[in-house]
Amino acid sequence: MRPTKATAPRRRRSGSVVAIMALVFVAITLSGCSNIISSDKPVKPMPKASDGQIDLTDWSWTEDGVIPLDGEWSFDWFRSTTGNEAAEPIPTTLEVPGTWGNVRAGNGMSLVDQGYGVYRLTILHRAQRDMMAIRLPNISTAYELFIDGNSVLSRGRPGLSAGISAPRQLPATVYFNARDTRTDIQLTVSNFDHRRGGIRTEIVLGDSDHIQSLHTRKVAQELIVLGCLIMIGFYHLGLFLLRRQEIANLMFALLCLFVGMRTGLIGEGFIVQWLEPLNWTSAIRLEYIAFVMSGWSGFGYFRAMYPGEIKRVWFRISSVCAALLIACVIVVKPLHFTSWILAFQTYVLFFSAVVLAGLVVSARRSREGARLALIGVAGLVLTVVNDMLFYNGWWRSIDLVPFGLLFLIVMNSFIISLRFSMTYERAERMSTELIGWNSSLEEKIAERTEELQRSNATLADAKLDLERMEQSRTQLVSNISHDLRTPITLLQGYLEALRDNVISEPAQRDYTIRSMLSKVEGLNSLIQDLFELSVLEARKVELSMEDIPLAGWKERLTEQYGLEMETKGISFVCTLSDDCPEDLKVVIDIRRMDRVFANLLYNALRYTPDGGAIRISMKASADTREVEVTVTDSGAGIASEDLPYIFDRFYKKDKSRHSSSGGSGLGLSIAKEIVELHGGRITAHNPPDGGCEFRIVLPTAS
């Protein structure tokens, strides 16, 4: 059912509300992200570490807030050893944050992402009476923290070789006393299981209150995201169970749940904390599987929503690629499949591009919710690009894919809610219409009866028209037979007389031959008129259109017919209205229009007595952008019963306006077809003061 005019504003209002809610969601998300990135950002410049030391003696923890310990740390890189050889450290410096394979050590040495290193930083600060705290991010892939020589925290078991190290990644907050003016931090890090080793994001130092506030905000934000994803996922799973044919609900539920799984595995790692038996290897496998399945289910959702724009073959290709990537994650070691992260990201980016292309087409076709979906997918693609740069060490940021996916999910939740709302609205409208139809059934029956009566009257009129057309066709055949038989009979008689030497005098023979030629020319003219009329009626004529100024056209007609009319004793005038613009033009085929006016003027000349008048007047209408040309004569006029039929072919009646000696009877039919080919119309009537008037209306040039 097509939407009525009343529902269109409601749909636009719904779209506006959804757009405003989406903008509010983006603003809240971005504000939360900014708090995580730069919480309590001080006004004055932040000190940076240099050569393994950072001076914070001028830093006020209560006024300036937390500070990232970025800069140049002391760093010992340990060579890989075999057998019983002792590991030899290579002392240097290293920029923090930064993964080993993407930064160069202070001595110019290039590091690899698999190995063992020790970070050291000396912090100079004021003596603190209250507790201080350090916020540690996820560090690849095992580390142990020492403060002033004391081990205070470990994640996994760092070791000099893969055999003795055990990976585990979780962020942590460490509280310590800083009663002295110097604090030494040592961070032992090893990585033999992941493609990237080292410290990817910043380590933050501050007093316990600020660090606790930062930790609370991040935990709350991730829990909100995770809770929203799980609730939306189970909600749409329930919708699918209630209506199994809606595959889009199932795909959307899977998208929410897999994104929620990945969100719970990265960042604060809530799933890893809740499921203590879950080791690092299983967690990283689940993270990559959830990433692939998120892309697959998201693509399947948009395929189900817009099947006309996203073809089934793309979903099949997506399923095969997802199955191959998941098989690699299950079979291959984490060190290898994490090194193939570009393949996973390419998979998501490529099919996101397919979805974007499909949504662009859908938006152009005004599909329901296509524009909102396009905004959501575009936001997701931007966050995926951000995370690709971030995880490859080319960009300093945070993991934004969960927020991008949540934004996409919220947008599509709005779309589904909008569709349900429109469905209910249609159902209510149909119910109201059915009630109205039932209550006014008698009125409808009366209206239908009246319509049938009108249809019957129309059919009766059509029957009369068909009978008139059949009569016209019979008359047409009769006229053609008569107009062809008479000259042919005369020609036959002349030829027989010439053959039998009945006409023997040279002068009489010449007269006979000239008469025969005249009859042949008349036959050629009749045949040519018939051919031209058939071509015009079939609309197979190519007009040579040109812009003709109305004033120039008036002068042309005056030059063509003025002198001839005067020599025959007829007053001829061609005028242009005073209010007509000088630059007004019409677009016509001037040669064929000459044929129209030749037919009209010579017909008028035939029936206008000596001393009569023929007048052509031209005027323009600014409102309708049309030019009206009238040809008026002072003859006897046309009988009222003949007026409806004068443009029919071969219509000749033995009355004052139509004698049997007058032409082929095709001139006005040809004139009518030519005018209509120009997008105009031609009519005829008898003015009150006598004579006949033909009116031609043509469109003006743009």
UniProtKB/TrEMBL annotation:
It is an enzyme of class 2 (transferase). It is found in: Cell membrane. It catalyses: ATP + protein L-histidine = ADP + protein N-phospho-L-histidine. Its EC number is 2.7.13.3. Residues 438-479 form a coiled coil. One of its GO terms (molecular function) is phosphorelay sensor kinase activity. One of its GO terms (biological process) is cellular response to phosphate starvation. Residues 479-702 form the Histidine kinase domain. InterPro entries: 7TMR_DISM_rcpt_extracell_dom1 (IPR011623), BphY/WalK/GraS-like (IPR050351), Galactose-bd-like_sf (IPR008979), HATPase_C_sf (IPR036890), HATPase_dom (IPR003594), His_kinase_dom (IPR005467), HisK_dim/P_dom (IPR003661), HisK_dim/P_sf (IPR036097). This is histidine kinase. It comes from Cohnella endophytica. The lineage of its organism: Bacteria, Bacillati, Bacillota, Bacilli, Bacillales.
